[in-house]
Amino acid sequence: MMASAVWKGTLLNDEPLAKYTSWRVGGPAQHMYIPENKADLVDFISGLPEGEPLYWLGLGSNLLVRDGGIKGTVINTRNRLKEMRLVDSERVYVEAGVPCAHVARFCADLGLTGAEFLAGIPGTMGGALKMNAGAFGGETWRIVDRVEMVNARGQVVERDQAEFEVAYRSVKGLDGEWFLSAQLKLAKGNSEASQQHIKALLEKRNATQPTNKPTCGSVFKNPPGDFAARLIEACGLKGFAVGGAVVSEKHANFIENQGNASSADIEALIEHIQTQVQSKFGISLQTEVCRVGDKA
């Protein structure tokens, strides 16, 4: 793929992805594009060959890139697509590359309430939209009014929240489109109260989750009426390791990279956990983490 003079961003080839993922694992991307801004990204996508596989990367959480890497093009929105502004008294425009924690604080500073839970999500707004990310009882799509999408031909469309089928950690109706931005609808509140709420949520998160370790966030979805962490811990799997990957002693729904893990180690540990929980409880744990790329 040749760089075009109209692109303002950076195109990298055979770029190792481990340094971009929160698990610190993953093979290379055949191509990686770091756009200058939203308009540049749309221009870049419109010039791609038909059928070019596209992958999106924000903070690299909730993502397992396999050791063989990714064939196609990875769009890296980290520190890009970062515009955030007040639309009217109760609506906020947020581009896909903005970290969720920044959204929470921005809304709180404006005296808008409803987005505080985003402080507990270790990814970007784009990733939160894709999977209906949640934390502390809040869910992304409960505060979404409209979204802006781009398709593989570089065409930009606005869609209403009602056009998507949204469920727990699931969003259907994307159909070859990706999120560029969202308009969030919030309620007027008290800035100080929201900031205190965020502080309390982060204190709870730091007390219960291994936030200082290389993890992807929660690995498994909670099954109906139960918690994945409880089931994993009940199987005696806290501290269980495969290679350099280990089930966190602090929270059983987190897998830590001890420093030398491969993606294969992590994936083998995920499958071992699923087998053990299925055997003991008859429950099929579904992964929350998105697995992409080729095995080595």
TrEMBL record:
UniProt domain FAD-binding PCMH-type: residue ranges: 25-189
InterPro entries: FAD-bd_PCMH, FAD-bd_PCMH-like_sf, FAD-bd_PCMH_sub1, FAD-bd_PCMH_sub2, MurB, MurB_C, MurB_C_sf, Oxid_FAD_bind_N
UniProt-listed GO biological process terms: cell division; cell wall organization; peptidoglycan biosynthetic process; regulation of cell shape
The UniProt record lists the keyword Phosphoprotein: no
EC number: 1.3.1.98
GO MF, any single term: FAD binding
Cofactor: FAD
Keywords: Cell cycle, Cell division, Cell shape, Cell wall biogenesis/degradation, Cytoplasm, FAD, Flavoprotein, NADP, Oxidoreductase, Peptidoglycan synthesis
Top-level lineage group: Bacteria
Catalyzed reactions: UDP-N-acetyl-alpha-D-muramate + NADP(+) = UDP-N-acetyl-3-O-(1-carboxyvinyl)-alpha-D-glucosamine + NADPH + H(+)
Subcellular location: Cytoplasm
GO cellular component: cytosol
Statement: the UniProt record of this protein carries the keyword Cytoplasm: yes
Active site residues according to the UniProt entry: 169, 218 (proton donor), 288
Pathway: Cell wall biogenesis; peptidoglycan biosynthesis
Reported function: Cell wall formation.
Sequence similarity: Belongs to the MurB family.
Name this polypeptide is given: UDP-N-acetylenolpyruvoylglucosamine reductase
Source organism (scientific name): Methylomonas koyamae
Highest classification ranks of the organism: Bacteria, Pseudomonadati, Pseudomonadota, Gammaproteobacteria, Methylococcales
